[in-house]
Structures are given as structure tokens and as C-alpha cells.
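queue> holo job accepted (9D3)
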Amino acid sequence: MTEPRLHHVGVVTLFPEMFAALTDWGVVGRAFKQGMCDLSLVNPRDYATDIHGSIDDRPYGGGPGMVMQPALLDCAVDHARQRAGADALVIAMTPQGAVFDSQMAKDLVEHPALIFVAGRYEGMDERFVERSVDLELSIGDFVVSGGEMPAMLAIDAIVRWLPGVLGHADSAVQDSFSEGLLDYPHYTRPEAYCGRQVPEVLLSGDHGKIAGWRRAQALWRTIARRPDLMTAEALSQEDRALLRLWGLD
Ligand code: 9D3
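queue> job finished
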């Protein structure tokens, strides 16, 4: 990976207050508060010129909803670029984008700066997208009310990859997800809960055996629940043996 890592995230949004969910809570909130990464919020409404402060207008060709005006989006992105740096990658969150995943999060943290554009209404004028946007991203095949929460999800997933944001234990867990496996099941006290026991192997103190059981569980859950991530045919001989050992075949 190349050296200069993410130091600035810009966001163009009509609802900057929503981003408190990102900056005020948890490990990612701490990363922003500690200045491991800067966040700048730019509201395209601040560039509106008419008396009503409109940022949207009716779609050419007719149809429902309103469209975000290209000039105001460009003014906001230019302003974000002044803070983020000229080399910032501009990402529009849109339902038409490529579906965001863990590999993209890992790749995007290697950019020095990112500017996210969160849309509202029916969408953004396509000329803004063509002229000023480097990458369009979606968070999946379902409809939400705007690009803010999608942008926050993507920023959270990216900033987690900055060195020092996660503790060592969490980093290891993240590594295993990027390996493409679901997590194994977790248990804490009490040893019996509503008649259900903690699996005996976890009480054995045999760390090699526990690691084998956890991998077998992770493999089994991935094959059973997410055949898009893994099928039994793709298993190594070693992993097949683990599943057999734990009665999961
Ligand atoms: C039928 C037209 N709709 C497109 C699917 C209109 C429309 C719905 C919702 C236009 C914009 C939106 C707001 N959504 C986003 O901006 C968005 C989004 C999403 O809805 N789902 C998954 N990822 C994303 S990223 C941005």
C-alpha cells in the first residue's frame, strides 16, 4: 500500500448535523476528536443565490421529485477541496453506484483525502456527476432517504482501517472478516443461561482446540448463511477435517 494515508474527510450535505452520529460516538468518533483524521462539513445551501435559498429544481422531462442543482454542488465540492487538498477523491453516494465492500474500505483509506457527496431528493444533476465525481458508491440494494447515512457508514468502515483507531484485538477480528468469513459465536458469563450451556470446548482451556472449533464454526456459518462468500467445494483439506472433527459436515 502507498504511504500517505487518509488525513481528511470532507462531506457535502444538506444535513451536516446528522454527522454527529459519526464524530461523537465510539472508536471512529475518538479518531476524529483526537485529530487522527479531520472532518469538514460543507452545506450546498450556503451557496444558494435566490431569496428562498433553493438547492433543488424541477426535473427536465417531467416526473416526480426534485433534482439537486449542479452549480451549488460544484461550489460546495470546490470549498471542500480547499480544505481537503487538491488530490481529494470525490465520491458521490448514489443508489446507482458500485456496492461498497470491505476491500473498497481498505483501498480508500490509502487516499490522502476523500470528499463524500450525500444526495437528497430524486438525485443530483448528471452533469455534476460526470464533471466532478470520481466514484459513485451505493451501500446495497435497498432504498434509504438520502446519502447521509450511506456516507457515514462508508466513512466509519474506512476510518476503522487507520492505524491506531482500533485496539489490537479488534484489528485481528477485522483481518478475519477481510479474509471473507463470518464471525464465530461468542459467549460470556453465566455458564448456563435459561437452560443453555456454553459449549464445553470453550471451558477446556485448550487454546489450540478452541481456535479449531472457532474456525470450524466460522466456516460452517459462512457456508450455510452466505453461499455468496464461500461454498463447501472451496474448502481446503485442513478445513474439511476441522468441520468433520466438530460434526459440521
Ligand atoms: C426510483 C428512484 N429512486 C432510485 C432508487 C429514487 C431515489 C431513492 C432514494 C433517489 C435517491 C434516494 C436516496 N438514496 C441515496 O441517496 C443513496 C442510497 C440508497 O438509497 N440505497 C443504497 N445506497 C445509497 S447511497 C445513496
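queue> The two ends are 39 Å apart (CA to CA).
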